[in-house]
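Methods — Computational structure assignment.
A single polypeptide chain was analysed. Its primary sequence is given first, followed by the predicted tertiary structure written as structure tokens.
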Amino acid sequence: MAISDGHGLPLAVHVASASPHETKLVAPTIERRFLAETPQRLIGDRAYDSDPLDTQICERFGVQLIAPHKSVRSTKATQDGRALRRYRRRWKIERLFAWLHNFRRVVIRWEYYPENFLGMVQLACAVILLRYL
């Protein structure tokens, strides 16, 4: 899982097995950020529409989670339209994953150990950041 800023540059990466749901990986990914300060807002897709996740991330890190509501949501809507307008610029965040696909060792996981794979992902993020400068 990765977190990027508004320009698509990486802020945090985390490697885990494929079994846990993405919502369980948000907090560990924020903890492994590259910078000391936390982002003000996180934008996620419909899978992140969870009221307990919203309160956990807000209380623990002070980060506002923006995610469109699921169509089968049974409780009252918590996101207003102003915050969801930021979701339209999500393509900038998806650009990070497109940039990571330029690195062969990140696209196909050749490493057996997750620590080695995390090192390759962090190296790819460093190259992306150096290209931006």
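Note: The chain has a mean pLDDT of 86.
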